[in-house]
What does this fold into?
Amino acid sequence: MTVTAVPVQRRDKVGWGDLVWLTWRQHRWSIGGLAVLLGVGAVVCLVVAAVVRNTGRVDMLGVIGVYGLSQLAAMAPMGIGAVIGVFWAAPLVSREYEQKTSVVVWSQDLSPARWTLGKIVLLGVPAVGLAAGFGSSALVLARAVNSTFPPEWQPYQPFQQFVFEASPLVQIGYAAFGFGLGLALSALTRRTIVAMALTLGGFIVARMVVAIGWRPYYQTPVREVWPYGEDSERPYGQLAQDHGLHVDGGYLDAAGREVDFPMVCARTSTDGNSFQKCMADHGVVSHFTDYQPVERAGTFQVIEFFVFAVPAVALLVFAYHWVKRSHRI
It folds into this structure.
């Protein structure tokens, strides 16, 4: 009896094609679901925008329908980064530990480091692409709606929160940060529910801190000063017409120092002279308003991209090295 030796085929490592197949098999429902949802939404936005531009009138389509849809489309990008972080990234590592599949997945053919890098590339890139694509379609619809209004009455302006945050560049920053935060917390906690909850909370807190506390001060605001007693609505009306971002406002004394409104003057006679005299007696000589000119909107979007992109890279690097160091075969 003759025995023929069959050469053993050794597989040195899992290739990128295998990683693509594995990622799709594991995450096809989450990837496909979000892609379909955002894809349909983007197509609707683009079709409605084309119809609005062709008709030139929003009311022909119904103000409630078109304007409501444009508001919904403008608001949606605010939450895409959170969805990606909570439902895509947060379960990635923790689920492998909870289901004990890490022992099988992370073998000699596929190291934890290579597995993590594959997830970052194969899930992170589509995540930022989907966010940027839908943000772009929302902006197209917003601009189409704007084109039906006079410039001074246009509902969507560059510094308006919905429009500002729908920028594709800003959306890439949000999506990358959400994905990085979710992956880092997933690797750190090894508990899916905990990672999802912390990701959602951390993302919301970060977005609020940046939008309320940081964004108005990316650059030193422009200050406009005018004598007290003139039309107090003039600068604010001009600011609204120029579509700038209001930062602060109040009163100044003769030395140009900010002073609080003297509450005692609120109890004076409604006679204008008495009120003006009370204000002057308490040192109020002028109004001021601080604002960001509309021309800075594009620069602010670039700054906000880096505000989120830099921490995102740091979180992804942390997650990569944490998984690589913490797992031992």
In short: The chain has a mean pLDDT of 82. The chain is about 65% helix and 5% strand. The radius of gyration is 27 Å.
